[in-house]
Amino acid sequence: METLELIDKVHDEDRQGEPFAPIAIEPNIYKKKFYIESYGCAMNFADSEIVASILSNEGFGATKNFEEADLVLVNTCSIREKAEATVRKRLTEFKKAKQAKRGMLVGILGCMAERLKGKLLEEEKLVDLVIGPDAYRTLPALIQDAESGQKGVNVLLSREETYGDIAPIRLDSNGVNSFVSIMRGCNNMCSFCVVPFTRGRERSRDAFSIINECKDLFDNGYREVTLLGQNVDSYYWVDEQKDMVVTFAKLLEMVANISPLLRVRFSTSHPKDITDEVLFTMARYENICKYIHLPVQSGSTRMLQLMNRTYTREWYMAKVDRIREIMPDCSITSDIIAGFCTETEEDHQDTLSIIEYSKYDMSYMFFYSERPGTLAARRFTDDIPLEVKKRRLNEIVKLQNRLSQHSNFADIGKTFKVLIEGNSKKSENDWAGKSSQNKVVVFPKASYNVNKGDYVNVKITSATGATLLGEIVE
Ligand code: 5AD
Ligand code: SF4
């Protein structure tokens, strides 16, 4: 009860325009302090907020200083080797802090915990707790085990866990936009990807708990929610009486109907699953943002087959056409992998040309990194030399930068409805916010009486590759 009152207080302060502080602002009422650091995808950041909620019920308050924490947690990512290397380095730093503070516990959460299981605890003695993505409810018991000198490990994956009933505690929030997890796990078997092994089978969260969370956010001043899942388009929920089926399109509509002032985004879509019904729902609601993250991975049908993506180059291009036909102003972004097993120069050229065809506003671009246990690691040889992977990646990045810049320059002279998120990074005299298309827009505060969380119309006057600059218009 105490915790809930405190959370309300934080939100109240936020509504008055104070910078949002996590629950650490009144640490004295808590018996102990925890520090949490998150890596990887948005899903992981959303999970850390569930963990914060579980811990606050146990009397833990958040701190931003790991050296004073009783419990240090790292929510980790396994998607590429580099992500894991970063976490390992950080864990050795925490090990030192642990030596300086008696009784401090260090725990690893998330995908790396799932993948490496007891290894970090037993062989490398880097951590006291290892907890997989479906085991966060057991955290309090595992902390007790670790405090009494036993091993605190739970990496069991579940077919049901969605944490649907747990109200997340927002960490590091700007009080305007928030992630809302709608499903967990993944049933796609992309051959390069470790996620099905670290996050288990796909399951959808109770639609009503999603709506309640979004309503609650709106009532607390939030103006944008991003519905999260590894593959949101396969969201599917049937209520207990089996008289109501909620598809992703239906869920989008339910969230959009909370208020026209609440913007809705979602991530990530699999090109094979995004339906016309979703596209038409997006087009029908002004507050569903015109933005689709539609990872292509490769532009070569042969590569796509090896990657087990279940679509061809032509099929993907037709999907892009369909999006543009239904929503001409929709922004499309992508994930791209350079140098997957056996990739030829011709395959690489196919990737470059599909990027050009799709005119992505932005892409996340990677070179292939083999992950142990994946289908690709078992079936194919990681045979593209690193320098070739890097060169191809460079070519992809260069092309994408050109397209992003071109897209931003094409916006000069246009007016966008922008949701203000806070001060711009560079100046307190400027606001920063986002357009429906997810582009960052920066503009002078001037004498307008507006605040973060407000919508304003901004006319774009200039642009860089990453930002649109403009002025408020009536
Ligand atoms: N190597 C490189 N990139 C990868 N991704 C997933 N697995 C790998 C891997 N083994 C990329 C994909 C995915 C994004 C989240 O990370 O592009 O969409
Ligand atoms: Fe990383 Fe994937 Fe796990 Fe997210 S789900 S943390 S991207 S491995």
From TrEMBL:
Residues engaged in binding [4Fe-4S] cluster 1: 41, 77, 111
Necessary cofactors: [4Fe-4S] cluster
Keyword S-adenosyl-L-methionine: yes
Enzyme Commission designation: 2.8.4.3
GO molecular function annotation: 4 iron, 4 sulfur cluster binding; metal ion binding; tRNA-2-methylthio-N(6)-dimethylallyladenosine(37) synthase activity
Function summary: Catalyzes the methylthiolation of N6-(dimethylallyl)adenosine (i(6)A), leading to the formation of 2-methylthio-N6-(dimethylallyl)adenosine (ms(2)i(6)A) at position 37 in tRNAs that read codons beginning with uridine.
CC terms in the record's Gene Ontology section: cytosol
Residues that bind [4Fe-4S] cluster 2: 186, 190, 193
InterPro entries (alphabetical): Elp3/MiaA/NifB-like_rSAM, Methylthiotransferase, Methylthiotransferase_CS, Methylthiotransferase_N, Methylthiotransferase_N_sf, MiaB_methiolase, rSAM, rSAM_horseshoe
SUPFAM superfamilies for the chain: Radical SAM enzymes
Protein name (Swiss-Prot/TrEMBL): tRNA-2-methylthio-N(6)-dimethylallyladenosine synthase
CDD domains for this protein: Radical_SAM
Localization (cell): Cytoplasm
Domain annotation TRAM: ranges: 409-474
Domain MTTase N-terminal, chain residue ranges per copy: 32-148
Subunit-level organization: Monomer.
Domain annotation Radical SAM core: ranges: 172-406
Residue ranges crossing the lipid bilayer per the database entry: none
Catalytic activity, reaction form: N(6)-dimethylallyladenosine(37) in tRNA + (sulfur carrier)-SH + AH2 + 2 S-adenosyl-L-methionine = 2-methylsulfanyl-N(6)-dimethylallyladenosine(37) in tRNA + (sulfur carrier)-H + 5'-deoxyadenosine + L-methionine + A + S-adenosyl-L-homocysteine + 2 H(+)
EC primary class: transferase
Main location: cytoplasm
Details of cofactor binding: Binds 2 [4Fe-4S] clusters. One cluster is coordinated with 3 cysteines and an exchangeable S-adenosyl-L-methionine.
NCBIfam families with a match to the protein in the record: miaB-methiolase, MiaB/RimO family radical SAM methylthiotransferase
Protein keywords: 4Fe-4S, Cytoplasm, Iron, Iron-sulfur, Metal-binding, S-adenosyl-L-methionine, Transferase, tRNA processing
Record-stated family: Belongs to the methylthiotransferase family. MiaB subfamily.
Source organism of this protein record: Segetibacter aerophilus
